[in-house]
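User: I've been trying to design a sequence by hand for this structure and keep getting stuck. Would you show me what you'd pick, starting by listing the structure so we're on the same page?

Assistant: Good idea, let's start from the same input. This is the structure you sent:
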């Protein structure tokens, strides 16, 4: 009898957990405009990626929710802030944002690895692609 009650109790508790889990997933998937603005602000405030706010997941969320596909470089800078670096070639331009950097006193440790998101634009500064790299 005690075993049956224990099994029923476990079943009841697991149902409540799944419901909360589904509710939490819904919150993550449906970001409000205010929350999205805060996420963009947090990204911009972690300019070197030292605070671990920046990640590929956060970038992809901002990319998708702000509909950056096909936009110009100015729109990216408005959402993501000034890039950490840039490279200019004869046929393209790349802006670079660091994330997940190894830092001390909010400065990247010289010679340490740093991860970056590299966003490529054509000569008219229209988005073409992005990729990630560890330097």
């Amino acid at each position: 009898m005690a075993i049956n009650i224990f099994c029923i109790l476990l079943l009841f508790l697991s149902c409540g957990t799944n419901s909360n889990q589904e509710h939490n997933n819904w919150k993550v998937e449906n970001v409000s405009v205010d929350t999205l603005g805060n996420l963009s602000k947090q990204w911009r405030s972690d300019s070197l990626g030292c605070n671990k706010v920046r990640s590929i997941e956060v970038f992809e969320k901002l990319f998708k929710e702000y509909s950056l596909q096909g936009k110009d470089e100015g729109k990216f800078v408005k959402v993501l802030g000034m890039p950490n670096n840039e490279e200019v070639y004869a046929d393209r331009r790349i802006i670079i944002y660091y994330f997940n950097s190894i830092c001390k006193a909010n400065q990247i440790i010289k010679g340490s690895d740093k991860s970056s998101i590299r966003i490529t634009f054509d000569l008219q500064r229209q988005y073409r692609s992005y990729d990630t790299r560890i330097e």
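That's my pick for every position. To get oriented when you compare it with your attempt: The two ends are 62 Å apart (CA to CA). Residues 33-134 form a domain with the Beta-lactamase Inhibitory Protein; Chain:B, domain 1 fold (CATH 3.30.1450).
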